[in-house]
Amino acid sequence: MLEFEYARAAYKNGLTLEAKLGVNPYKFGLIGSSDAHTGLAAMEEENFFGKTAPQEPIPERMTKTFFHHPKTGVTVTDWEVSASGYAAVWALENTREAIFDAMQRRETYATTGPRMAVRFFGGWEFEPADANNRMPAAIGYAKGVPMGGDLSNAPKNSSPTFLAAALKDPIGANLDRIQIIKGWVDKDGKTQERIYDVAVSGGRKIESDGRCKTPVGNTVDVENATWTNTIGAPELIAVWKDPEFNPASRAFYYVRVLEIPTPRWTAYDARRFGIKPLPGTTMTLQERAYASPIWYTP
């Protein structure tokens, strides 16, 4: 993959361009969807119907070549192709108008397939006790702005605070962790980025550098294409305060939620058809969700 194919790179470039032009052309929200050509909404790993008709479930699809460029020699095998995701929208009601209004204000998030519920709010007054509230949306809207929103006019001697909450897919895997990804422009005009773990399951510890070094574990039975929810957590919620905030620097913050490891579609195919994968085939993955950012502008 090329550097600028990632949303995070575009978000950072947007901050740089805003400093030069006065407007951020890359202030977009996030959704997940499919680029498949089958006409099927088959996003989950155990029901993956491929990107095109020739990649529909057959015993040979894991070992066939998906793409080969004779001049460059670049080859992509079918097992490298991924199942896709869903677009999630926080709308006031289930109507066309309300859904389009929500997309326009970027109150959206993406998942790689699971139906996780994700909330993300930013403001100046969130407190650790807010993470104990059973109505995170109510307190989130009351104290801050939702995903896709904007913060500015930082109060003196204050740092932005964020409320992040995630609830597992009812029939899916437990959650590993919630992360907040921050991007900003430093005093030299260069873009920077950093990942913070803000909530982790299983009583693990988040170190002083903002990261949890202990993996959540792995219960996947690859041979039988199954797993158990004996690790992870059904829900996670946390309030996080930026420990390195500079009120003079443009920044963005977005949430990433990770599930515990589960079987990839390749494991389901191997089990279903009784075939042996090619060496190096990825058989497990950690499904995830990405919330639209909240931007800070001085």
What does this structure look like?
This protein is an alpha+beta fold and 298 residues long. It has one domain (3-297). 14% of the residues lie in helices and 28% in strands. The chain contains four helices and 16 strands. Strands 3, 4, 7, 9, 10, 12, 15 and 16 form an eight-stranded mixed sheet that branches. A four-stranded antiparallel sheet has the order 6-5-8-11, covered by helices on one side. It has a two-stranded antiparallel ribbon with strand order 1-2. It is globular. The relative contact order is 0.19.
Number of domains: 1
Q: By helix and strand content, what is the structural category?
A: alpha+beta
Shape: globular
Strand percentage: 25-35%
The low-pLDDT segments are: none
**What's the Cα radius of gyration?**
21 Å
SS element count, helices: 4
Encode the helix/strand succession as letters.
HEEEHEEHEEEEEEEEHEEE
Assign a percent range to the helix content.
10-25%
Q: How is the biggest beta sheet arranged?
A: 8 strands, mixed
- The count of β-strands is 16
Determine the N-to-C terminus distance. Answer: 33 Å
Question: Please, what is the average pLDDT?
Answer: 95
Structure keywords:
single chain; 298 residues; alpha+beta; globular
Q: What does the secondary structure layout of this molecule look like, with pairings?
A:
Blueprint: H1 7-21, E1 65-68, E2 75-77, E3 86-89, H2 96-104, E4 108-111, E5 117-123, H3 136-143, E6 144-146, E7 150-152, E8 161-167, E9 175-185, E10 191-200, E11 235-241, E12 251-259, E13 262-263, H4 265-273, E14 284-285, E15 288-291, E16 294-297
Parallel strand pairs: 7-16
Antiparallel strand pairs: 1-2, 3-4, 4-15, 5-6, 5-8, 8-11, 9-10, 9-12, 12-15, 12-16, 13-14
